[in-house]
Design goal:
binds iron/sulfur cluster, 12% helix, alpha+beta, 81 residues
Length: 81
């Protein structure tokens, strides 16, 4: 999957990394996922890499990936603090 949609890379923004304020995080069900790459393409923070792993240092928990996933393979789970 190395040539997969390398459109952008996560960068530390003006406000830094996400820190601890995120309330929900995306969890990918690899059984349902067909590796289409749409979640990575839609993620506004480029927090999903070519291997479809979520970088929680940068993920804001917006849920766009879960909403756009055609296989409904991503669920937003509440962060444990
Ligand atoms: S929840 Fe939002 S920021 Fe986090 S991986 Fe999904 S689309 Fe990206
Ligand atoms: S959008 Fe859904 S099916 Fe496609 S790669 Fe992401 S998790 Fe997998």
């Amino acid at each position: 999957m190395s040539e997969h949609l390398a459109m952008s890379r996560p960068k530390e923004g003006a406000s830094g990394k996400t820190g601890s304020w995120r309330v929900f995080k995306p969890v990918v069900d690899k059984e349902k996922c067909n590796a289409c790459g749409l979640c990575a393409m839609y993620c506004p923070d480029a927090a999903i890499n070519e291997d479809l792993e979520v970088d929680l240092e940068f993920c804001k928990g917006c849920g766009i990936c879960a909403r756009e996933c055609p296989k409904k393979a991503i669920t937003m789970e509440r962060e444990e603090k």
